[in-house]
Design a protein that fits this description.
4-stranded mixed sheet, 2,3-Dihydroxybiphenyl 1,2-Dioxygenase, domain 1
Length: 147
Amino acid sequence: MRVFVAGTETQRKKAIMVLSNYKVGAGFAVSDMARAREFYEGKLGLSVSIDSPDNVQYRCAEDSVLHIYLSPEHAGKSTETLASWGVDDIERVVEELTKRGVTFEHYDEPGLKTDEKGIATFEGDAKVAYFKDPDGHTLSIAQAPRS
């Protein structure tokens, strides 16, 4: 992210947000920790890196993390996609997750139409498949456009 400022080149370089130099992770509330763990560990196959009764952190590729915490009054309130995993072969991953019990969303609206597996194709052959966790959080897997 850049903030536009007038001034010298040195002053403009200092205006670059410092957080762009760091990895980012996702974290969100769940209403039932046991049910959430069954989904994230059992269905998605995530590995626990930090484990406590009300907080669990999962470590994924390249030291990225997904953190869930118990907060029933806040769980499931978001309508946007909260986390997305980049994959190389979306069809294979959709098939594997479907076998594990993950249900993919189906859309048929302007700008978003999925196939029978729940995979949407975008410009450049980029592909995304959306699914929900037990609290209704929208998550996705995405395959980058082919070059």
